[in-house]
Design brief:
alpha/beta; nine-stranded mixed sheet; five-stranded mixed sheet; about 25% helix
Length: about 475
């Protein structure tokens, strides 16, 4: 099967239904399908070998979506490339993923026009990339459990399966209008593909500040918000009278939901934020739709057809989270690692530490590699960072363990100041008010920026030296 067929089915079912709103442009499903076919013909003229890998370097736009499906119609593999990639990183992705070309909005090296505001840069490769006989559709980088970049390879069939599984939780239909603000280079398969599969309307929110975002919600009667805590925090701090009465589903994803954001959003709009657990290797694993107010820090229960278990739990029930279900990635692409070698007895081991409560709600505590072992105590950096980040002089923080000859590890922190002259004289006192004594960092290091993984931008969890 081919994912382009699913969109064509939506276009036949409701040709005049609006698929996307971009700035002042509205494009119907029929017009989107026609645009995809036109671009597919242009791409076909480039005569790529079936299964060739093509990078897609575009901002959020109808063109991004249309090109993705046009590549799929030509049986090509889409490799999303964030537009903010520096040249060195772009070269690395091109070489590692054996890209035959990159499609971009702005001309890159050797770029030639393919269509208005679309350029193609072709590369000389010795041999076509080996997809090992799989019907590959998509490869995306992830930091993985070791913070090393891996290309997560997914077939058309796998993406279809995870889209169907995700919608068993979201219940999105052609009646929904999604207000979209996340970068498509990082979020596409269980979101954009799902929305188009069911015939929903997607409104591209160009500005994520509260006023224009709320205006978009109310102008288009948005029913679904799928965003990061950062975006919901901006909305929660809005002091206008604007409400979001049409919204039925507000899902918080990408990272842990801070308690103040969950509380403030609910107080401001009277609607709960639903924490979700999505993993690029797995798709949507869990969604807290059952009790998001009382258990705001839980990602909920596993969705239909997914099973989650805790490996080697300690006396508190804390252990490594393992998942089994539909849509598990088919391989890691570089170096090639097929699914059967990734799984452990059929389970994908996530590298997250978590626990279940008595009612079966899953709580994620930390990355396995991030836990600090202090004199027999397990210290979770995220818990301390959540406190530090509330200090008005701190923009963001990273907590890590430093080896100690007697205690095993001690807690230290790197902090980025909110302003160059921000004062942190009372930081230790602030920590004593909010943290147990053993959790207070023994040293604070002021740094200009925190280390992050390439492409995905996740916080690097390897200990500082």
């Amino acid at each position: 099967m081919n994912l382009a067929e699913l969109l064509e089915h939506s276009a036949r079912r409701a040709p005049q239904k609006i698929a996307f709103v971009e700035d002042t442009m509205e494009i119907s499903y029929a017009a989107l399908a026609e645009k995809i076919s036109s671009l597919a013909e242009k791409i076909s003229s480039l005569q790529f070998a079936a299964g060739a890998r093509v990078g897609l370097c575009f901002p959020n736009s109808v063109n991004y979506v249309a090109l993705t499906y046009a590549l799929w119609k030509n049986n090509l593999v889409v490799v999303p490339v964030p537009t903010e990639c520096p040249p060195e990183e772009l070269h690395e992705i091109t070489a590692t993923m054996e890209l035959s070309a990159i499609l971009s909005q702005k001309p890159l090296a050797n770029g030639e026009p393919l269509a208005p505001e679309i350029f193609v840069s072709r590369f000389q490769i010795a041999t076509n990339a080996n997809n090992h006989g799989l019907n590959l559709a998509f490869i995306r980088f992830t930091s993985g459990t070791t913070n090393a970049r891996k290309g997560v390879a997914l077939t058309h069939e796998t993406i279809r399966d995870r889209v169907l599984a995700a919608n068993s939780a979201f219940q999105i239909s052609e009646a929904d209008t999604v207000i979209w603000c996340l970068p498509m280079a990082h979020h596409f398969l269980i979101t954009i593909v799902l929305y188009l599969n069911v015939g929903a309307t997607v409104v591209l929110a160009r500005h994520v500040t509260a006023k224009p975002f709320l205006e978009a919600v109310n102008r288009w009667r948005g029913t679904v918000l799928y965003a990061a805590p950062f975006h919901f925090s901006l909305l929660a701090r809005d002091h206008s009278a604007a409400q979001i009465e049409s919204v039925r589903l507000a899902v918080s994803t990408t990272c842990a939901l801070p308690p103040d954001v969950a509380t403030q959003f609910h107080q401001r709009f009277g609607k709960p934020l639903l924490p979700a657990l999505g993993i690029i290797e797995l798709g949507l694993v869990a969604l807290n739709a059952a009790d998001p107010l009382a258990r705001w820090n839980s990602v909920g229960k596993p969705i239909t057809d997914f099973a989650v278990k805790i490996l080697s739990p300690d006396e508190h029930g804390v252990g490594e989270v393992a998942v089994r279900g539909p849509g598990i990635c088919d391989a890691y692409a570089a170096p090639w690692q097929p699914r059967e070698t990734i799984l452990r007895d059929g389970w994908f081991v996530t590298g997250d530490l978590g626990r279940f409560d008595a009612d079966g709600f899953l709580f994620l505590l930390s990355r396995k590699t991030a836990v600090i072992n202090l004199a027999g105590r397990k210290v979770f950096p995220e818990e301390i960072e959540a406190v530090l980040d509330q200090h008005p002089s701190i923009k963001e923080s990273r907590v890590f363990g430093r080896v100690h000859p007697h205690l095993g590890e001690v807690v230290e922190a790197e902090i980025v100041l909110s302003a160059p002259d921000a004062g942190i004289e009372n930081l230790s006192h602030f920590c004593r008010e909010h943290l147990a004594a053993y959790k207070i960092p023994t040293r604070f290091h002021t740094v200009p920026a925190l280390p992050r993984t390439p492409v995905t931008g996740k916080l690097l969890r390897t200990a500082a030296v």
